[in-house]
Amino acid sequence: MVLLVPQVAWASSFVTGPIVQVSGTSPFPAGCGLAPEDPNDPTASRLYLNSEVEPWVDVNPANGDNITGSWQQDRWSDGGSRGLVAGVSLDNGQSWTLSPVTGTSECTGGEYDRATDPWLSFSPDGSLHHVSLSFNVAGTDTTNAVIVNKSEDGGQTWSAPKTIIRDTRPTVFNDKESITADPKDPNYVYVIWDRLVFPRGERASIRAAERAAAFAGPIWFSRSTDGGETYEPPRELFDPGILQQTIGNQIVVRPQGELVDIFDLIQNTRKKATRGQNVAVIRSKDKGETWSDPIRFERMVDPEVTDPEDGHAVRTADFNPDIAVDPNNGDLYAVWQDNRFDPGDHVSVALSTSTDGGFTWSRAVKVNNTPTSIPSGNQQAFTPSVDVADDGTVSVTYYDFRNNTSDPNTLPTDYWMVHCHPSSGSCSEAGNYGNEVRLTDVSFDMEKAPDAGGYFTGDYEGLANDGDDFTPFFSQPHATDPASIFFRRVGP
């Protein structure tokens, strides 16, 4: 069946600038951050040298020419990478230099074996704040820590890391942290994450922790009130209880001042209507001093993605919702993967909106423009990101398999963007998302990506804006590299 999308008179058609390769050969010394590999053991760690995955990006509000992103460099199959690297542009994304993030791992001058989950955010004064998770894997050492770095030159150099929280117990693993600089007040910076707790006697494996399988996983939080110079002692915000957990926490700040944290609330012992993965938020009216109870507004229905030919897992944002806020009126936009629109066949991109600060949300709608006249397995759309430009335009990016063929040895994949301009109608309606643009010039083969619990380019991808333009920052296999980072400016 072909889905007919209503024709909309678009206020402005989007055009793409040239695609720019940001990363390539690993900048790390050859001998750092390595562990023994056993080619005869299929469960042993495998290093994907020259792979760059899971990028995040932001634009300097004090200098729009400065765009900075960071990513995992040299991904391991069983969790984390050799370290984290930032890509810095001072000319609107035309050219980039690499800047390893200091102290995130042994390869960047730190004490930890591996690093993962990079996230960064600019303050309004141009200070750049970076958060990551660092951990050890050697022997019985399970030390893991959430650490922050700061840059005063747009990411070209980094401060020594500060530790937000550090655990040495084998039953605790901090995970999926993010950082948000308050867009109105450079004094405030917010860090939030889930803290996975496993039963006594059970060691928290890296793979289990990364894939959201725990005995408990409450939300933890810390903030800075002095521009990132110091951080308050970490504290628990919400504990969903035994056999429940949270993951994918991310804070946005409304222009009215409230903080809104979105997350995946995983419930394993609740009634059928809420069992499984749920999109939820908590709110703060006082810059993170106190927080509301959770507001659960949608389920994430069967969000996992597989290779259409052989069923091999494709690791995606299947537990990570993304959120963005309109900088003018404070409207909120949330996206995630969902199978509700055509159950049993394929995953799509769901979007829901809130106009009252997260108290109530619109019915989820499908916004990806993947053709519906192709085989259902090729219709899978995944790892969505959302952002809102200065003029209120909402953009959503995602991967899909629409150009896949029947060849079982390749999995052609592309990256796309759709947008909704408020003058076209309500951005809570599916029919107002169109003018799809292709962000990849040619399809890439997903089967060449690192296999880390599935073909992997990241549990999230970067998307920010520079005024009315958008700045997608994404990973894909390229030439002989398992994955490289690319940038492309898109705008009216």
Overview of this protein structure:
- By secondary structure, the protein is mainly β.
- The protein folds into two domains: 12-28 and 314-492; 116-299, 6 Propeller (Neuraminidase).
- 1% of the residues lie in helices and 43% in strands.
- It is built from one helix and 36 strands.
- The protein has one helix at 206-210; strands spanning 15-16, 20-21, 47-59, 67-76, 81-89, 97-100, 114-122, 128-135, 144-151, 162-167, 172-181, 189-197, 216-217, 219-224, 235-238, 244-253, 259-267, 276-284, 295-299, 305-306, 313-315, 322-325, 332-338, 348-354, 365-366, 381-388, 394-400, 412-420, 434-438, 444-445, 455-456, 465-466, 469-470, 473-478, 481-487, 490-491.
- It has a five-stranded mixed β-sheet, with no helix packed on it.
- The longest helix has 5 residues, at 206-210.
- The chain is globular, with a radius of gyration of 21 Å.
- Mean pLDDT is 92; it is low at 1-11.
